[in-house]
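User: Here's a structure from my thesis project, written as structure tokens. My advisor, Dr. K., wants to see whether a designed sequence matches the one we expressed. Can you design one independently, without my sequence as a hint?
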């Protein structure tokens, strides 16, 4: 019975996931299928291309670069994150992404984004990425601080809006057992208060009422998915690696010291649970 890997997003809190995935690479822990949204999808790419510590360098060196994340980007391009830099100069020159290994890998990679016309998640395969990385860019394009991405006939934004922990998609695809990497500790529950005032959300996305509904119901959806994860874990159908203590950094954090603390927390948590994980994978 195959076991899939499911990666939550969380913006720059993805430094935690980067640490976990480096431990997987250290120990040859692989999965036939990987599901990711937002930062989880970005982390998944370096994991699938087997580029050990590539994401560590990104969080340590490039996240604090204004070309990666800054208000200047937002004013210039409408996006807080500099996707032109991330998928351009950084991935091709400064810290080259191994496209050859990525596309040659037998891993079935699924990246989720939100269809803003329906408010529902849509998932893209590795095959969809061969022409461009726009599906990954869309998955990480946070509402209010990113422009809408048009790809494959869809108008898309952050996958975390509609499917923040895509374990249900993995189960629909036939994966009865899943390893989940979450970016919040076990006590966390998302507040019902949206990140941005509801009147502002309605004004900005007035042409997309289903997206507005998804954004305003995000906390309920996320907390329900956390409860599903808990049930699956209690049934032996999921193995969860998550921060061992509350994460106080925001998803826009740029301080490399704080991000490295998160990265190494991911390393420690994954190493501590490695034997349990390997037993789960063999079970």
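Assistant: Designed independently from the structure alone:
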């Amino acid at each position: 019975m195959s076991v899939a890997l499911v990666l939550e997003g969380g913006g720059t809190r993805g430094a935690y996931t980067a640490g976990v995935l480096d431990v997987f690479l250290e120990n040859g822990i692989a999965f036939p299928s990987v599901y990711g949204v937002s930062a989880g999808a970005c982390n998944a790419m370096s994991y699938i291309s087997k580029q050990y510590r590539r994401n560590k360098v990104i969080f340590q060196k490039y996240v604090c670069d204004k070309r990666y994340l800054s208000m200047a980007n937002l004013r210039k391009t409408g996006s807080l994150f500099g996707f032109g830099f991330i998928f351009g100069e950084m991935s091709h020159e400064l810290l080259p992404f191994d496209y050859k290994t990525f596309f040659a890998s037998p891993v079935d990679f699924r990246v989720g984004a939100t269809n803003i016309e329906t408010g529902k998640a849509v998932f893209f395969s590795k095959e969809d990425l061969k022409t461009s990385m726009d599906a990954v860019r869309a998955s990480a394009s946070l509402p209010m601080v990113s422009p809408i991405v048009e790809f494959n006939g869809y108008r898309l934004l952050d996958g975390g809006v509609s499917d923040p922990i895509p374990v249900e998609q993995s189960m629909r695809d036939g994966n009865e057992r899943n390893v989940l990497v979450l970016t919040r500790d076990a006590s966390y529950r998302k507040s019902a208060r949206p990140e941005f005032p509801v009147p502002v959300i309605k004004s900005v996305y007035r042409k997309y009422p289903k997206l507005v509904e998804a954004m305003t119901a995000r906390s309920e959806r996320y907390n329900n998915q956390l409860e599903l994860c808990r049930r699956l874990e209690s049934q032996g159908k999921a193995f969860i690696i998550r921060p061992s203590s509350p994460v106080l950094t925001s998803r826009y954090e740029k301080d490399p010291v704080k991000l490295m603390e998160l990265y190494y927390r991911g390393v420690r948590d994954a190493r501590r649970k490695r034997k349990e994980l390997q037993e789960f994978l063999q079970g």
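When you compare it with your expressed construct, this may help: The chain is about 45% helix and 15% strand.
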